[in-house]
Amino acid sequence: MQYQTETSIKSKIAIDIQNLTLQLGKKSLFENASCVIKTNHKTALIGENGVGKTTLINEIIKNTNKSIKINPGIRIGYFSQDFTNLNFQKSVIENVMQNTNKSEKMVKNVLANLLFKDKDIHKKIENLSGGERVKASIAKILVSENNMLILDEPTNFLDIESIESLEKLLKEYNGTILFVTHDKTFIDNIATDVLLIKNHKIIEHEGNYTSYLQYQEEKSKKKETYTENNKLLLDFKLSQISSELSVTKDEERKKELEEEFNRLIQLRNLTN
Ligand SMILES: Nc1ncnc2c1ncn2[C@@H]1O[C@H](COP(=O)(O)OP(=O)(O)O)[C@@H](O)[C@H]1O
Ligand SMILES: [Mg+2]
User: Fold this and answer.
1) What class does CATH assign to 1-75+146-219?
2) How many CB atoms are located within 10 Å of the residue 76 CB?
3) 221 vs 167: CA distance, rounded Å
4) DSSP the chain
5) Ligand 1, atom 18, residue with closest C-alpha
6) Closest by Cα among 138, 98, 196 to 128
7) Which atom of ligand 1 is nearest to the CA of 55?
8) Mean local confidence (pLDDT), 106-126
9) Mean pLDDT in the chain?
10) pTM reported for the whole predicted model
């Protein structure tokens, strides 16, 4: 299935970030950082927890920062972890049908492609699991009028099968994508470009994650690359746990997650 984008963008640059300097409270996140996000490329935004990936995306969405120029032809569909695009009192199908001129048949097809069961699409969002909420939110974005997707950690909460079906939909998406994830396979399967936030700068790499790692390997010793991989894996697990922690109501599960989180944080500190 093709998700045709409405406007064809002539410029090769979707978003142009030049000399971005940004502080949050006392913490400096970016110092003269620059990069471009190319039109119709699928760019993975990576970096350790807390480097400012979500903050950068928020700045793009707000579109008030003078250092960030968004091509006027770009219309963004935005997935954030707080499900701001969903009405929790309404059903999946009601939510997804809300901002689209696509037919109900087409919308149901997208939901089916995301492995939504027929009987679940009439459930209210408030009664869904974390993973189903992610899928409902992404389905709503996929069928809305846009030509760029910005997805902040869409893989959290999703099981392997759902991640694979999301991969397929994103590969078929006929527009620009900027996405954050700690899932290396997901990056490798989708990304044409990688942006890495490190030391308050944004490092651009044309190519997928594997080619990025190869490039890094040439530059540094193998041992350092190994540490980087371990860190990414730990960061991935940490961010999954914190996502689950933010929604779980089960006290016992909460305690279990907190213990696992603390254990991983200690490991993470050892790899620094
Ligand atoms: N409103 C805020 N005030 C001060 N610091 C913040 C605020 N929001 C986030 N931060 C801090 O800014 C840093 C970057 O956060 P974030 O952009 O969420 O990182 P990432 O998405 O890469 O994990 C983190 O260290 C976080 O604690
Ligand atoms: Mg984040």
Assistant:
1) alpha beta
2) 21
3) 32
4) --B--SSPP-SSEEEEEEEEEEEETTEEEEEEEEEEEETT-EEEEE-STTSSHHHHHHHHHHT--TTEEE-TT--EEEE-TT-TT--TTSBHHHHHHTT--S-HHHHHHHHHHTT--GGGTTSBGGGS-HHHHHHHHHHHHHTSS-SEEEEESTTTT--HHHHHHHHHHHHHB-SEEEEE-S-HHHHHHH-SEEEEEETTEEEEEES-HHHHHHHHHHHS-HHHHHHHHHHHHHHHHHHHHHHHHHH---HHHHHHHHHHHHHHHHHHHHT-
5) 54
6) 138
7) 17
8) 95
9) 90
10) 0.78
CA 52 to centroid of ligand 1, rounded, Å: 6
Tokens 């189903």 found at: 132
| Token pair of 226 as six digits | 């190994």
How many Å lie between the centroid of ligand 1 and the Cα of residue 54? 7
Rounded Cα–Cα distance for residues 239 and 265 (Å): 11
* pLDDT bracket for residue 6 (50, 70, 90): very low
pLDDT tens digits along 53-92: 999 999 999 999 999 999 999 999 999 989 999 999 999 9
Distance 53 CA to ligand 2 centre (A): 5
pLDDT: which is higher, 4 or 81: 81
* pLDDT bucket at 99, cuts 50 / 70 / 90: confident
- Cα Rg of the chain (Å, integer): 19
CB-based pocket (< 6 A), ligand 1: 24-25, 27, 29, 47, 49-55
pLDDT grade, residue 214 (50/70/90)?
A: confident
